[in-house]
Amino acid sequence: MTTRRTFLKSSAAAAVATTTLVAAPAILRAEAPYKRTLRMQSLNSGEKLTTTYWADGEYQKGAFQRISWFMRDLRTNTTTDMSPALMDLLWDIDQLTSSSKPIYTMSAYRSERTNAWLAARSTSVDPGSFHRLGMAIDITQEFGDPHAVYRAARELNRGGAGYYPTRTPYVHVDVGPVDSWVHPAIGRRDRDAEYEAQIAAEKAADAPAEMPPETTDSSNS
């Protein structure tokens, strides 16, 4: 875990390591596109990021630097190397749902401190969450029909998929063990209370810091 200052100093080396973690699992490997671009917007910070994270047959170092900062823990303003497999999963979900909107994110990386703080206030937060490892993200309904997102994640079968049918539904996806669930199995009013407790905690973060430059990639990084 690093602060923004140390993250920017070490991002190039970290990104190099990131590019060698896994091979890119596109929906159709034999017909993998020349480039893969993610369009995202943070529900909590309002930040937007459009970046080509895969091109010329490899992950793009500069793109992963920006992705990792975009998906940082806003409460502690810290980050970790986000999983390349998670980016591939997001890209494939985007392709399957054919959404015309950016991927709206609620929560991506969480520090141990933030995750523990949230877990103490909401039963929907797992103390051992994959968010702590840069392997999970929560997608809000602004992106598209949460049922369709949940179905796409289950169809891809590359990790965990959780549907949270609160007043403002969202879908959790991760690249941990394959699993699926609808949470929690309680009344709608209590589900809403759980969600509102979590979103209030997420929005309690300090004002977001300025992102690194070049938030839009049109070429290799």
Automatic annotation (TrEMBL):
Q: Which residues cross the membrane?
A: none
Residues of the region (Disordered) are 200-221
Q: Name one GO biological process term.
A: proteolysis
Q: Which Pfam families does this entry report, sorted A to Z? A: Peptidase_M15_2 (PF05951)
Cofactor(s) named in the record? Zn(2+)
As given in the record, the signal peptide range reads 1-23
Q: Which UniProt keywords apply?
A: Cell wall biogenesis/degradation, Hydrolase, Metal-binding, Metalloprotease, Protease, Signal, Zinc
To which pathway does this protein belong? Cell wall biogenesis; cell wall polysaccharide biosynthesis
Q: Where is the composition biased (Low complexity)?
A: 200-214
Q: Name one GO molecular function term.
A: metal ion binding
Family note: Belongs to the peptidase M15 family.
Task: Give the protein's recorded name.
Answer: Murein endopeptidase K
- Per the UniProt record, the source organism is Candidatus Phaeomarinibacter ectocarpi
